[in-house]
Give the backbone structure.
Amino acid sequence: MGALYSACLFLGVNNSSSVQPIVSIERTVFYRERAAGMYSSFAYAAAQGLVEIPYIAVQTIIYGVITYFMINFERTIRKFLLYLLFMFLTFTYFTFYGMMAVGLTPSQHLSAVVSSAFYSLWNLLSGFLVPKPHIPGWWIWFYYICPVAWTLRGIITSQLGDVETKIVGAGFEGSVKKYLEDSLGFSPGMVGVSAAVLIGFCLFFFSIFAISLKALNFQKR
């Protein structure tokens, strides 16, 4: 679990940080082309988002094939495809989040600062460092709007949520399935919901990016 979590967060943040300078530079060209009436804001945003998909897909396949068999998850087609799906959605929303951060801020440097603040909050309240049952009541709302929490829930429950192997640890004795439910708050049957929520985050971040291009103009004359 720790290896999965660290890799997801590291690669996701890397995706987000890598896309920001590109979007920032190309936005200057977009302002010029929009002023000339070449294309609309939404057409540009759609092209900017869709061009990232093939790169994310290749990254997901390479990363997924290596890590899935290295971790030695159960070798079934369904679980392998679910693993790839959650990794693909994770890399996608991180990429779109980076684009959104640039769209809402006047410079790449400010977007990097704003993004870093949210990375820290996502890391702290994703349910891994502080499990869901131990998150204070006044912070539990952030857990449910944290995309990394849904990534972790989706990956772990899809791979280990049906494992009945008995484990014995400090203060716990029971199956892996029971441990996930009691210690981490990962109830079974949430795989589909997790995937739907991650798709929602992807669409939300991309939509905000597209709207910011339409509504905000940081061009200096």
